[in-house]
Amino acid sequence: MTRLDEKNPTPRGELQLRVVAQPKDTNTNGDISGGWLVTHMDMAASIAADRIARGRTTTMAIGEMSFVRPVRVGSVICCYTRILGMGRSSIRIGIEVWCRMPEDEERQKVTETEIVYVAIDDNRRIRALPQTESTEVIN
């Protein structure tokens, strides 16, 4: 899945979340924490999963990822999602994080991964996804 080394890449998917990195989000080196980024990635991908599931989902797995550049305070972080696949109760979402540093004109890719969600009911039990006319998978 990794495209982090491509020249002039562009985001794949739909913009789900945009947030500005704040001083409170830093690690001990003064850069934005990787954990903070992962939290926002999960939040963005769950928006897409919940919409498809027409209700609650829960995170089941997060794929491997590498952070290719540090993110600084004041950077605008954008999370893009796309549906990679669906099962009876699961949804596999591809997510890419891009940022624009305060001093930069162009955005840069920070990381990407896949996250799997499972639809759950009000009792937190796995349930089937609703039937839809389109089960198109976007790559």
TrEMBL record:
Span of the signal peptide: none
Molecular function in Gene Ontology: long-chain fatty acyl-CoA hydrolase activity
SUPFAM superfamilies recorded: Thioesterase/thiol ester dehydrase-isomerase (SSF54637)
Entry-linked InterPro entries: Cytosol_ACT, HOTDOG_ACOT, HotDog_dom_sf, Thioestr_dom
The keyword Hydrolase is assigned to this record: yes
Protein origin, superkingdom: Bacteria
HotDog ACOT-type domain sequence ranges: 11-123
Magnesium as UniProt keyword: no
Stored Pfam families: 4HBT
Keywords associated with the record: Hydrolase
GO cellular component terms listed in the entry, alphabetical order: cytosol
GO biological process entries: acyl-CoA metabolic process; fatty acid catabolic process
Family that this chain belongs to: Belongs to the acyl coenzyme A hydrolase family.
PANTHER family linked to this entry: ACYL COENZYME A THIOESTER HYDROLASE, ACYL-COA THIOESTER HYDROLASE YCIA
Protein name: Acyl-CoA thioesterase
Organism: Saccharospirillum salsuginis
